[in-house]
Amino acid sequence: MTTQETTAAADRKATVVVGVGAVSVADVVHVARAGAAVELSGEALEAIATSRERIERLAEEPKPVYGVSTGFGALATRHIPVELRQQLQKSLVRSHAAGSGPEVEREVIRALMLLRLSTLATGRTGVRPEVAEAYAALLTAGITPVVHEYGSLGCSGDLAPLAHVALALMGEGTVRDAEGRSMPAAEALAAAGITPVELAEKEGLALINGTDGMLGQLVLACHDLRNLLKLADITAAMSVEAQLGTDRVFADDLQQLRPHSGQASAAANMRRVLADSGIVASHAGPDCTRVQDAYSLRCAPQVAGGARDTLAHAESVAATELASAVDNPVVTPDGRVESNGNFHGAPVAYVLDFLAIVAADLASISERRTDRFLDPARNHGLTPFLADDPGVDSGHMIAQYTQAAIVSELKRLAAPASADSIPSSAMQEDHVSMGWSGARKLRRAVDGLTRVLAVEALTAARALDLRAPLQPSPASAAVRDRIREEVAGPGTDRHLAPEIESAVELCRTGALVTAAEEAIGELA
Question: Which residues form a coiled coil (predicted)?
Answer without folding.
Answer: none
